Every structure is written in C-alpha cells, then in structure tokens.
C-alpha cells in the first residue's frame, strides 16, 4: 500500500472528496437533511467554515477553512461520518456491518488537498460547483439544489448562468 501522508496545517484551507463505499447508493441526497444536521452538529462543537460544497448521491466535495491553531479535519470527518451513519440506522436504512463490526457505508479514506493560493482556491470552487454537470445529473449548474453555488449567486459572487459556457473537452479542471 502507498505510504500516503496527509498535510496538517493549522488554520489551513482544504478541499475534500468523501465517498460512500457503494457508489450505487444515493444516501447522501436521499438523507440530505441528516447529512446537513451532522455537519451543523460538528461545526457547533468543532468550528470550521464551509467555503463551498456540493452533495451528490454517493459522494461530496467541499472546501473547509479551519480556525487558527487547529488542524484536526480528520476528527471532524470522523464525527460527521459517524453521526450521519447513526442517523441512517435510526431511520431504518439497510446498512450492514463488515467483519470488523463497522457499517459499510463510507469508504474508509477520503481525498484531501491543501489549498495553496487564491488561484488554487478558485479552481476548486469551480470544480465543486460544476461537478453535478460533469457527472450528468443536470445540464446547468443552477439546476442542482445540493450545492453552495446558490449561495454564491445570492451573494453576487457568481452569475446565475455560470458554467453554461464551460466545454468539457477543454478539460478545464485537470481531469
């Protein structure tokens, strides 16, 4: 196995991709209120700022800014995932335990990237907001309701028609 080292930067800004183990499930959007509650609970007890987020049926992308002197994003993710899992169990979702006694809901790892500069930040915000179009869930960014894009429009940061001129063949997001 690759010896992957996470970057821990106190007060850092991070991009994350977090995925369900079964990519055919749609628990994140079906139970979006429970997911939002999980985020809110953890934010209340371990503050952080969500800069941008998109929730898709089986994965999510988000950008966080941690408080000064704090680099514990791993603990926050553990708490969010655990709280959401418990909410699904309580609601009767069909979850099963693996051989280690853990529920097979989440992939055990997640992707994390430390934001380096303003250009890197803007590129990741765009990636987050365009992701539902990239995956074919909608034709226009504005049509996906589980996205911080709408907050960016309300604040006047992005226009309502943002993303309509992006050509996937240009590979604008480095994929």
Question: How would you describe this protein?
Answer:
The chain is α+β, with helices and mostly antiparallel strands. The chain has a domain at 13-117: Alpha-Beta Plaits, CATH 3.30.70.1290. It contains five helices and four strands. The chain has helices at residues 27-30, 32-45, 73-91, 118-134, 149-154, and strands spanning 13-19, 49-55, 59-65, 111-114. A four-stranded antiparallel β-sheet has the order 2-3-1-4, with helices on one face. The longest helix has 19 residues, at 73-91. The chain is globular and about 45 Å long.
Overall helicity: 25-40%
Q: What is the succession of H and E elements?
A: EHHEEHEHH
Based on secondary structure, the structural category is alpha+beta
What topology, given as strand order, has the largest sheet? 2-3-1-4
CATH topology of the domain at 13-117, by name, is Alpha-Beta Plaits
Any idea what the radius of gyration is? Answer: 17 Å
* Straight-line distance between termini: 24 Å
What's the total count of β strands?
4
Task: Report the β-strand fraction as a percent range.
Answer: 5-15%
Tell me the CATH architecture of the domain at 13-117.
2-Layer Sandwich
Q: Could you list some keywords that capture this structure?
A:
175 residues, alpha+beta, Alpha-Beta Plaits, 4-stranded antiparallel β-sheet, 5 helices, 34% helix, 14% strand, globular, disordered C terminus
List the helices and strands and how they pair.
Blueprint: E1 13-19, H1 27-30, H2 32-45, E2 49-55, E3 59-65, H3 73-91, E4 111-114, H4 118-134, H5 149-154
Antiparallel strand pairs: 1-3, 1-4, 2-3
Helix pairs in contact: 2-3
């Amino acid at each position: 196995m690759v010896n992957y080292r996470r970057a821990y930067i106190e007060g850092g800004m991070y991009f994350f991709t977090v995925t369900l183990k079964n990519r055919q499930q749609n628990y994140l959007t079906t139970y979006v209120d429970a997911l939002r509650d999980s985020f809110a609970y953890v934010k209340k007890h371990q503050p952080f700022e969500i800069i941008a987020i998109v929730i898709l049926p089986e994965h999510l992308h988000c950008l966080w800014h941690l408080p000064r002197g704090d680099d514990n994003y791993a603990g926050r993710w553990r708490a969010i995932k655990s709280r959401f899992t418990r909410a699904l169990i309580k609601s009767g979702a069909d979850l099963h335990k693996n051989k280690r006694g853990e529920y097979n809901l989440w992939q055990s790892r997640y992707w994390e990237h430390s934001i380096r500069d303003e250009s890197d930040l803007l590129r990741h915000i765009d990636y987050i907001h365009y992701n539902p179009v990239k995956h074919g869930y909608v034709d226009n960014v504005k049509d996906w309701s589980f996205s911080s894009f709408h907050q960016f429009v309300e604040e006047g940061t992005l226009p309502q028609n943002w993303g309509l001129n992006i050509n996937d063949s240009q590979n604008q997001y480095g994929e």
